[in-house]
Fold this sequence. Notes:
With 65 residues, the protein is an all-alpha fold. It contains five helices and no strands.
Amino acid sequence: xxxxxxxxxxxxxxxxxxxxATKVGIRLYQYYEKDEREPSxxxxxxxxxxxxxxxxKLFKDKTII
Length: 65
């Protein structure tokens, strides 16, 4: 389980806003939120920057390869 949706909602951002800011397609970002896919390290870092947190906090108990 990841904390993407929780953190995004804390910042009052839409999936589209995060998707646009990270240059990740909206569907792919939705897969990340649903834990159906795992982002690359580079993408995880971009998402963490947009969500103003760390990769570790977003993907607690997950291994990102």
